Amino acid sequence: xxxxxxxxxxxxxxxxxxxxxxxxxxxxxxxxxxxxxxxxxxxxxxxxxxxxxxxxxxxxxxxxxxxxxxxxxxxxxxxxxxxxxxxxxxxxxxxxxxxxxxxxxxxxxxxxxxxxxxxxxxxxxxxxxxxxxxxxxxxxxxxxxxxxxxxxxxxxxxxxxxxxxxxxxxxxxxxxxxxxxxxxxxxxxxxxxxxxxxxxxxxxxxxxxxxxxxxxxxxxxxxxxxxxxxxxxxxxxxxxxxxxxxxxxxxxxxxxxxxxxxxxxxxxxxxxxxxxxxxxxxxxxxxxxxxxxxxxxxxxxxxxxxxxxxxxxxxxxxxxxxxxxxxxxxxxxxxxxxxxxxxxxxxxxxxxxxxxxxxxxxxxxxxxxxxxxxxxxxxxxxxxxxxxxxxxxxxxxxxxxxxxxxxx
Length: 408
Ligand code: SF4
Prior knowledge:
Layout: E1 3-4, H1 10-19, H2 25-36, H3 50-59, E2 60-61, E3 66-71, E4 78-83, E5 89-98, E6 107-112, E7 116-118, E8 133-136, H4 139-160, E9 212-215, H5 225-236, E10 248-252, H6 256-263, E11 270-274, H7 280-286, H8 289-292, H9 295-309, E12 314-319, H10 330-340, E13 343-348, H11 362-374, E14 379-381, H12 387-391, H13 395-406
Parallel strand pairs: 1-2, 6-9, 9-10, 10-11, 11-12, 12-13, 13-14
Antiparallel strand pairs: 3-4, 4-5, 5-6, 7-8
């Protein structure tokens, strides 16, 4: 299988171009087409010589995600169902203006991305694990979720604004030349081999939408460790996704050894633990992973992370009626939060078709929050309706797969 171009770092591209006898600034030009202009076709990269484009086409793939379905209004939480090149389906969720979920004053546009097709961890409340694990996502499939949402936004914006702002070369603004990358103004012998179209100034680089990432879509992120970490380096790099490391949160169901490994990484990402129970009895009931890495082991790994990174942790806590929303859970949860200086995000459960769990009443949710606050634990309760779509992660994919199976 050829490597996909969106799985390579700038250094790897430069090394490849050097090996081909190309100037290294070609790597910067290519990266701009991939991440700033988000083109989907080699032929759109008009400032690369045609012979180079042909060689890239032969040696690399340039896969994009196909949008199968989208749920949600443009100004609210939106769920994207993507088809991968092998026809597997994954979800990403865009959550606009989400207030202070991960310690930021305001997360303007948060994208929740998937890291696996399905999930092997079988949490009892989760739609993503219902049909089991199919495969890990590649680096480029994680990266492309962000780029594809940006591309979708570019199209939405082009409907709103004048044709002069359209991305992709169809329309060109009068002053577009001032947005050209520096390397574009250099003339080389090879420029003689460029398309005539390349001599037309490109339109302005479209603005970016996504400025926060949460890795808590389908799959257990830390079970796909190396591709995830490389994807995050690409998404964090200024020549790539340009998303600050501190605006990236990895969520795990509790893979203690990988948490320790993550603590050694130079990338300063945030860590969220999908806790959902503050005792082994409750976690064992909901999350099979707890039998392998019980709370004592998980908490020690979190302490190691805290010691190495000095960064605040977040506990994700789904409130499920009659399972973990009783006030008896509050004291052990508060004790864990205090020990790890963690913030608690309470998320009222969103029922999943085929699963018996229910959402607690509003009064029960508020009582749980108040009991945590009384114990001086920083906590938030997700009250916004739009987030219901995010909370039910995995359902759209399951629904679509079952519909497709029924129609064949
Ligand atoms: S909650 Fe996360 S780890 Fe658990 S089954 Fe769902 S996707 Fe997998």
